[in-house]
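Fresh eyes needed here. Have a critical look at this protein's tokenised backbone.
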Amino acid sequence: MDVFALLIFPLLFLLISPPWLIHAQQPYVGLAANACDIADNSTSVLGYTCNGLNTTCQAYLTFRSQPPYNTVSSISKLLNSDPSQVSQINSVSENSTIEPDKLVIVPVKCSCTGGEFYQSNTSYIVDNPYFSIANNTFEGLSTCQALQAQNGIPATTLPIGANISVPLRCACPTKNQSDDGVKYLLSYLVSWNQDVSSISTMFGVDYKNTLEANELKNKKKKHASASVITSQSFEAIKKPEGKNKVEEEESAEFLERSVYRGTIKGDFAAIKKMDGDVSQEISVLNKISHFNLICLSGVCFHDGHWYLVYEYANNGPLSGWIYHDNIDKRILSWTQRIQIALDVAMGLNYIHNYTSPPFVHKDLKTTNVLLDSELRAKIANFGLARSADGQEGEFALTRHIVGTKGYMAPEYLENGFISTKLDVYAFGVLLLEILTGKEVSALYEGVNGHLSDVLSPVIHEENGKENLGEFMDPSLQESYPAELAVLVAGVADSCIKNDPSARPGMAEIVQSLSRIMTTSLNWEKSKTVSGYHSFT
């Protein structure tokens, strides 16, 4: 039997797409809904406004099965629903285990709380921060702000083991909807590549009614906002009144191919225009947060194009600074170079060892490392990133080889092996570019197929320090500690070993570069080096 066959009553649904999009009965929910540190008491964040005909009603939620909430009983308990009703509506037995990611319809009692917002309450024993509870456990059916408002406990002091009340998003039909025959509203979890038309067809409801229920109807205003998909504090970008698409793009400040600088709430932002499927990059960036990784501020879909909004890095890509023949004659000091290398290493260490699942960036290069106003590095462009299937050093396989020539590890090029050691190899190449001031293509000139040949005169010969003059970036004018330069060259050499198991992990690299950075700062102050030999 079709899972929706028993929903024979007139029905409309509210669109919810965690963790990056929540459509309300009235307005969309913006990025603030998922950022616990943002003070936002707007209607869209705390719940749907009590504008229905009744203060209490029967409503329906949708939930996608995920362990440990993959049985009728566990889902019913989590969402405070009657398991017999869940079983009946979804045409399964009460003791059934539900396959992963399968949509489950859950009936709940929806009530107007305090005369302001509709909600259905359940309880939960705290085992994670509000953010994770709202967006992972409850899949966007609640928000950080709603949890804090309901329980009066700030996110910063939420105790593990506390029993909290969780307000779930629901609503009752308005008078107009009731007059049109609508008896119930269902909060639906939107997936990528779904649109209002396809969802309406799936539920057998009127397309226009769905638009109106979610305030998605196109009013054709000259300056209408595009729909926003978001996970942090972000405001919809509005088209300037009177400007057409071409005029608008021409007036924006061009940064690089399809990337523009815009202004949101008075702050600069990098806006990247994209076509096709952007779900992979958005999915990855919604799961990571680190100072050395570029932050996705929001996503906008308008006129058939995606616009990804990132934090703005004032000093642009590393490629505009590091090469000694750059047009602007920018020069990075020794200490600045080591700090940038350490920043990149820390960003990679985070995605390799501190995210669940761990991720492989797969496209580390100088153009994908951005520098902020303090010349601190942030890794960008996660379009090729994928989860690492296993512990560091273990392999996954692919037949689809994509990346940037010169940065791709041999095991990936030859056999399609994927592990975190791909990023380690690319980091070694990047480190070579930082030391020499040469592009990777120039580094390959005159070597017999492997970049270790470039390093050999410095790290494998007795007079290695004497060979630094020909190896190091001439724009440094020999203003660097020779002993430390040899050590950093050694780190680069270890990263580009042909055998991935012989390469260090990013945690080890971070430790080495941290010690080198500390000594470099001391050298910069005194122009003398001491203690460097203790961490070879």
Notes: DSSP finds 19 helices and 21 strands in the chain.
